[in-house]
Amino acid sequence: MLCIMGPSRSGKSFFLNFVRLYLDNLESRVEDGMKRVEQGASGMVRESSGIPKWMTSGGDRISGFEVKGGATAVTQGIHFWSKPYILHRNNGKKMCLLLMDTQGLWDDTMDNAFNCCIFGLSCVTSSYVIFNQKRNINSEELKRLASLFILSKEMVSEGRKKTLQRLDVMLRDYESLCLRKDTMETCEAKRQERLQQLRTKVAEKDSFGLIESCFEKVGVMCSFDPGEDVRDADYEGLISEIKPKFLQLLSIYIERVVNEIEPLKVSGRCLKCEEFVEWIL
Fold this sequence. Notes:
alpha/beta, 6-stranded mixed beta sheet, two-stranded antiparallel sheet, 10 strands, 17% strand, globular
């Protein structure tokens, strides 16, 4: 299960629609007898702008999870994409992948109990969690996030030191990235720098340390601003209005997430589909 969560209007559904496009294209490649997931990801054809063709394979308008411009929240509760994806791994095994979208946290319509419910259920049922935050994350936001992750960890059975598997903190529209100057290489350097800051800065390291204690692995993703057209209240989901550098960096990240995601594990053992249903219930 791949789950995305975060504050309201931070681009969660927007992101998952590109994940869905990538998975649709992987599926068609396997059906055509092409390379398996890990071998084929980086080999996907790119346009002259550097944008992979899979990003526009469904047309110029984003579809799937509902996306709208403006300040009004769209997603309510927890949404699953209706289609499970089958990933073919290099070891010959197959993995079923589900996509989960969630209502924005801390908006005007949700009380704290509902926030905890959405957050906890999402973490416990997912093997890969992406926390989507615009621009940056400060010490107070880290404290609030740490308390929710600790609560989520306590929701599952006792006896395991680290009960949650994978977390990425995705900083969209990261304030230290410049569309004109930064390259994919400098973006990676700034990503590593921000991760190191979270681990060492006095105001952040304690809270981030608590977050890391809840997961087997925690990472950071720093993303460009997609552009002023996407921020407009009347944005209607046109991919052609998104800055190419944003799409280039996003494609690299999505390919990595899909390659590295693992099945949900309980006591170190991967759950099968029937066992996953029992675990949820």
